[in-house]
Amino acid sequence: MNFNNRKPIYVQIAEYFLDNIISEKYIFGDRIMSVRELAIQLGVNPNTVMRAYAYLQDKDIIFNKRGIGYFIAENALKNAIEIKYNEFTKEELPGIFNTMEILGITIEDLKKLYKNHKTNQNENK
Amino acid sequence: MNFNNRKPIYVQIAEYFLDNIISEKYIFGDRIMSVRELAIQLGVNPNTVMRAYAYLQDKDIIFNKRGIGYFIAENALKNAIEIKYNEFTKEELPGIFNTMEILGITIEDLKKLYKNHKTNQNENK
Amino acid sequence: MNFNNRKPIYVQIAEYFLDNIISEKYIFGDRIMSVRELAIQLGVNPNTVMRAYAYLQDKDIIFNKRGIGYFIAENALKNAIEIKYNEFTKEELPGIFNTMEILGITIEDLKKLYKNHKTNQNENK
Amino acid sequence: MNFNNRKPIYVQIAEYFLDNIISEKYIFGDRIMSVRELAIQLGVNPNTVMRAYAYLQDKDIIFNKRGIGYFIAENALKNAIEIKYNEFTKEELPGIFNTMEILGITIEDLKKLYKNHKTNQNENK
DNA sequence: GTGGTCTAGACCACC
DNA sequence: GTGGTCTAGACCACA
Fold this sequence. Notes:
Four copies of one chain form a homotetramer.
Chain A: H1 9-22, E1 31-32, H2 35-42, H3 46-58, E2 62-65, E3 69-72, H4 76-103, H5 107-123
Antiparallel strand pairs in A: 1-3, 2-3
Helix pairs in contact in A: 1-3, 1-4, 2-3
The structure holds a DNA duplex.
């Protein structure tokens, strides 16, 4: 995983799980890596992973069996979608729409930018 | 001006000028408020305003006449648009498009969300 | 490090890093002193160091790992040379050449002055 | 006269006189513009001109006849050369030589840069 | 009056 | 521990 500097690392870790739960790579009951393991794999301080897990646990995305590990919760999929969707529409979109108006970018323009985005993505594969 | 907590104040001050330059409320040659003046008006420390002005000067949006004050630079409009546009397409859009794919949101869905956004905006007026 | 009064301290700190990157005393990946550490060592306020670091980061000379510290960036050498060279040829040389013409100093004269300079340097060692 | 922002305006005004005295456009006994006149012509605060004149008077480059005006002093040429030369060799050159060493620029390189400089100058005429 | 630099010290988020 | 932002207040050069 490559971290960018615009968001806290622990947030990026949490998002990684949210995304993979939504795309159902992780499903109810799956055990996820231990804090220590993941920290080593990511080259990151265990506290940072811990913080991501604490966040996910708080949101009912994962749960903890003491002494055993962390597991995907029953409502993980539903909750993950809800979190992501709310964040998207309430936190991100207003700013985006605002900027679009200031710059005079229309939804049609956005469509073109989206196509470019997809093209670039495929090229980098 | 109301500050939100998600971004540093000095960034929000700089953005205020960028936005108003793009909408041509400020044009080439206009003098902007002195550091002290604006600081008092915003209820903020002069250093904080200074930081915003230093950023804008570095980006060729404003320039300084010694002992007199800050003025909108000749290429302010061009540069402001460039900064805002790059910020938008390079920093914000990729994340947005990513989230849209994960959540299965299409450009058509976005259009609807945009209409809602506009409606809410008008209601709050 | 001894500061002179002709330039702001934060500029002199930044130049110290530029020079040492160019002479390859600092290379890609090296961690530099933390803001606080360097501030104490130089007997200077952390804000002043911070300002130098912010400048260097903006110019892609150093980068930050969150919560860990600042490191020499990959293109630090290239960028540092470019900055220094541009500063030299665009800002300093024109004035120098102008003064030389007014005073009737030739490049040959300069060569002699350079030799004196080197001699004095060695005597002071 | 176009001012640049790297030096105080009053210094640039003083330098204008020094240069023109050295090139003997102004000679002993010439009356120079009054403070007010020059201030208006330059679009500058009279205090700023006053400061330049005070500096020049202090260095025995000009003198004042009360109620009449400022005049070029007898030893203006000699003094102007001395000031300019000292400043050049003591203040400017050491820094230049230093930078040259850091960047690995030789006197031969400088010769080429000087030729470019002259070429550009002629093109702009 | 203008900006520019600096200090001292606080508080916060993050690792 | 790390950086980042902000305040309060000082001092200075310059116009």
